[in-house]
Amino acid sequence: MLISKTPLAVAATLFAVGGLGVTSAAWAASDSFQLPVMVVSATGYQQEVLRAPASITVVEHDQIQRKPVADLAEVLRDIPGVDIVDSGVAGMKRISLRGESSRRVLIKVNGQPIPDHSSYGSPLLLDANIIERIEVVRGSASVVHGSNAIGGVVNITTRQAAPGEQEAFVGAGYYSATRGQRLNGGVLGATDRFDWRLQLSKADFGDRRIPRGQVKGSTDQTKYSRLKPSDSEQKSVSAELGWRLDERQRIAWQGDYFRQEAAAWLPQQPNMIMGLEFPKRDSLRNALSYSFADEDVLFHSVEGRVYHQKGKRVMDNTINILDMPVPKTPFVVSSDSFNRSHDKLTTQGLQLTASSRLLGDNNTVFGFEHQKDKLDTEKKGVKNLIKGPPGTQLGKTYPSSSQYSEQTLWSAFVQQQFYLNDSLEANLGARYYSIDSKLKKSTERSTTSKTDEQLVGSAALVWQYDERSSVRSSIAQGYTYPSLTQQFSATPGNGAMNYGNPNLKAEKATTYELGWRFEDRQWAADVTLYHSQARNFIDKARIAGVAQGYTTACKDVCFQWLNTNRAQTTGAELMLAYQLENWRPYLNMGIQKRRLEYGTGLKTWDSGLPKFQGRAGVEWYATEQLELDFYVRGGGKSRRDDYDSKGEPQRQRTSSYAELNVGAYYKPVPNLSLAVLAQNLADRRYRNPDELQAAGRALDMEVRWSF
Fold it and tell me: What is the CATH number of the domain that holds 428?
């Protein structure tokens, strides 16, 4: 096939097919062909999308149901600027926005920030069926949403029944690439005073099947037909109970529990067998919220929330070095090592937001946030060494190491709207941060602490020059404070030691953006140009001798977290769709380029970002019950200058690709639906940056029955 061989043909195919809907990868029907009417994540107050000063994409519950997805991250894959990151663990996918690390993307569920404190960022550990709405803000958003929002925000709202609504449902899914299965069900309803929801889900995924051959982007010369191990299991429970005090006020309790086991696939190494497993990852969240809304009083909207979160992570790392000859001797060296890391993260938080119209009809939003994270870690290790004639064995159990650290954050912000005239609107915002991190106990080093204060701001201008279109421009700052792991860790992994650094500076970025939105009965479009400048990015650098702040010299391969990077990113995002009577061609395209500057003096455009990514296709509303979606998903080649696990320079490459997919959504009766997706029909072999190799030809199916 020509499309698989020529990158220019890939790009031409993507552009030639047409445009993509602005709100998601699939719209329900022709009468819903429109931009989302109202959004809240851009400014903190509810507003029409044409007036929103940020690049924002909305995915609704009905749109999620039309596509069978094995996990939540797949719901967001085709939004411009979104990249999926799995770090070799297919069951723990994360989101990257505009090329920023997943740790620089803030994940919020019902307003609660989801902390992680690892070096990777928060995985999307939620069942997609519990979600009512997702708002994705691309670009720095630390004024409205808080720390970690350098790349943007994924703001998730769970389902809530309206008064008089009653529903019970059961669903099942099958995903052939992993021989995966999912069962879920729930009930929700509401009266004039009370509303409730209870949902459960269980899923089991096997190893990923790929087209047989050498794994793309890897030096492993072995030929595979599946990536073993890459399996995972998931269980979740989500519930909510609300009480309407009157027409203006509501109190609600929300609770979510998620448990997962997952394995990481690692390429084979000569004379070495490596394993990485996550036998336990739990998260338990509870929140009590209060909301008030009355347009006739001074503070017309008030929201408050207290929350408590507990998370547990267990990671097992094994390295078996097979018989290796010792030069100029008859001896061989073998070793078996096992390391277990057990982390407990506890978070308590308080949020308060109030909206008023102190200056005429202009919205003023005040916000206060307090959060305290406690991280308790324990590491254990065992190593058996054989050196010399057979039977000569030295066993060593390393003493357990433990650390206990805390991070306390409080911040306050204000966001002000200014109506300059009927068509021109401005927004100004500022947030002040105060953060205190403490290492209170450690077997590796003396206790220490670090504080930081920061003020970030944003400004935007929106011109809605007619009822169908608007132009926006903005400048916004992002802020990400170092995690507890990056500041205080002493963690073995992949044959190396990784040390924290309490002297790290916070990561900062500024995003400049210009955008245009348009919508009428046939056309919908959202076009964005952006440029981001970032500094003090945190990365691992190989060290020799004693790490900063520690007393014991490193004897093997060692890394320490340092402020080493500066970055500049320039890009364009396009979402375009045209509605015919029964057909809707669409295009979703992102183009970006990133320049990195390392502390070593290296300056490179080879940052690992693909030159372009996109999805193009056409939806056909065959009947009132049947919708079909034919589309091509593709991406350009990428190169990354990086370092391997030993700290040696290496260049990672991915090639351009295009895959053909067909989706169908069938609803024969109002309470029964079937979603089917045939993926990678040409069985192409490719790999996206920061992901495992893509699955081969696969069929996903989900059925849902409500009553």
Answer: 2.40.170.20
